[in-house]
Task: inverse folding
């Protein structure tokens, strides 16, 4: 286990998940964004153009690498080549922390193509701790783990999702990237109280937040990253920032991307929430 | 719980309709195929079929979207048939992790070559043209020669392309990049 001192991490403020579609507008409005999160997988084997893009971004913004394919919950273990490439990226951009999801994306030779939940069992906790320990042997930069949204409820749970996350966080020494949208979506689809969830996790370990709006499809609320953030998620975000010593809040918009001014307005609103609760100046 | 076996079974259930049918109609076959314990199978029997199908559909939709980005002209030519044809392809092919979307697009193009589309006889030319570009630009091939039966300009812009008799040659080298030549053969017919 790595004991990270999360309170010593710098407060980054309000940022946005970098997408090349809005690169030009982003650079024209640099002061509207405090930091960027990059999808690390896009820069692990970069083309010459990708390497240039990374250098350009790193020259102008604080960057947080965010992984999507570590499959840290895979019982068959993790891909150490992937971890080593990730370590090289981290060495290059020197972020204050990095992040991945509590999920598995491959098993039995199948690449699922999406983040999928683990059964909330003791064996899953042990698997995650073993895999995360192997990652921490290679990367000693503070590691924060993100809660995912899911649409399939796995039977055989031995604990609640909140207890599951808490145990993994406690045993691995990782921080938490709380996706408030995912929390909101899961609480709706699986009918639980998000406040009760917050009461059950170590909020002092929350380092970063994600937020965005999702979409309804066949009576299921789906994390599409495609809509403006609705009021209920702003309320939840406000509650989390009030309770937790967050260092960064990040808009994660991937689809149906509006004019940049709309994104910047959401980032500005998130920045104000952090200021209100004295998380940054 | 054998987590590795459960995860492998879940990965199949999410991505392969045959496994979802197995869970529904012959769960013991799923148990044998995935090496599941009795307890694990009992848990999986309680999975919601509706939730599984919803997730499987969302995975297909994601794949469909990514392939559409790589084969935009083919998708435009197929129009409303794209969704059904892609789903048919996806039911029988799962791309590998490496170069996933590219592999998916190339296999989909190959799948389409075996499909008859009598109301749109020009579509095979669109597919052949776009597939060649994918193969050459991804560095998979260095030389490609294709014979096309429709004028490329009208193939990419028109709902009723003009007949033609063409040979297209693509060459890719590290030093000079990609080049392609379009040769008009004698006997070109215009409709």
Result:
């Amino acid at each position: 286990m790595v004991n990270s001192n999360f309170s010593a991490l710098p407060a980054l403020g309000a940022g946005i998940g970098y997408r090349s579609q809005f690169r030009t507008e982003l650079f024209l409005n640099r002061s509207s964004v405090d930091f960027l999160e990059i999808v690390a997988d896009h820069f692990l084997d970069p083309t010459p153009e990708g390497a240039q893009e990374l250098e350009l971004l790193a020259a102008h913004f604080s960057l947080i690498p965010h992984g999507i394919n570590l499959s840290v919950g895979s019982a068959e273990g993790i891909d150490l080549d992937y971890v080593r490439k990730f370590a090289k990226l981290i060495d290059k951009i020197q972020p204050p922390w990095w992040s991945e999801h509590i999920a598995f994306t491959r098993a039995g030779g199948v690449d699922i193509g999406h983040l999928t939940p683990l059964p909330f069992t003791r064996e899953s906790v042990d698997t995650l701790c073993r895999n995360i320990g192997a990652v921490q042997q290679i990367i000693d930069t503070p590691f924060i783990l993100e809660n995912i949204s899911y649409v399939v409820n796995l039977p055989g749970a031995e604990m609640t999702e909140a207890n599951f996350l808490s145990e993994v966080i406690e045993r691995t020494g990782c921080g938490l990237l709380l996706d408030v949208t995912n929390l909101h979506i899961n609480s709706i689809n699986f009918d639980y109280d998000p406040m009760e969830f917050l009461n059950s996790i170590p909020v002092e370990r929350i380092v970063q937040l994600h937020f965005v709006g999702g979409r309804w499809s066949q009576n299921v609320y789906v994390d599409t990253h495609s809509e403006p953030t609705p009021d209920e998620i702003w309320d939840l975000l406000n509650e989390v920032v009030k309770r937790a010593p967050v260092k960064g809040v990040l808009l994660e918009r991937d689809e149906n991307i509006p004019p940049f001014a709309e994104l910047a307005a959401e980032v500005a609103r998130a920045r104000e929430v952090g200021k209100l609760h004295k998380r940054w100046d | 719980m054998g987590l590795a076996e459960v995860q492998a079974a879940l990965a199949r259930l999410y991505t392969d309709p045959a496994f979802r049918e197995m869970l529904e109609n012959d769960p013991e076959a799923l148990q044998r195929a995935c090496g599941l314990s009795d307890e694990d199978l009992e848990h999986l029997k309680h999975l919601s079929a509706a939730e599984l199908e919803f997730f499987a559909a969302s995975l297909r939709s994601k794949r469909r979207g990514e392939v559409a980005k790589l084969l935009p002209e083919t998708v435009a030519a197929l129009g409303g048939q794209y969704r059904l044809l892609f789903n048919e392809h996806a039911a029988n092919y799962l791309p590998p992790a490496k170069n996933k979307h590219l592999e998916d697009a190339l296999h989909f193009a190959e799948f389409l070559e075996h499909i008859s589309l009598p109301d749109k006889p020009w579509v095979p030319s669109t597919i052949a043209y776009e597939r060649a570009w994918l193969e050459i630009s991804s560095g998979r091939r260095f030389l490609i020669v294709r014979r096309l039966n429709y004028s490329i300009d009208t193939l990419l812009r028109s709902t009723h392309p003009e007949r033609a008799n063409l040979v297209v040659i693509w060459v890719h080298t590290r030093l000079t990049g990609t080049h392609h030549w379009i040769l008009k053969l004698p006997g070109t017919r215009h409709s």
Q: What stands out?
A: The first helix of chain B runs from residue 3 to 15.
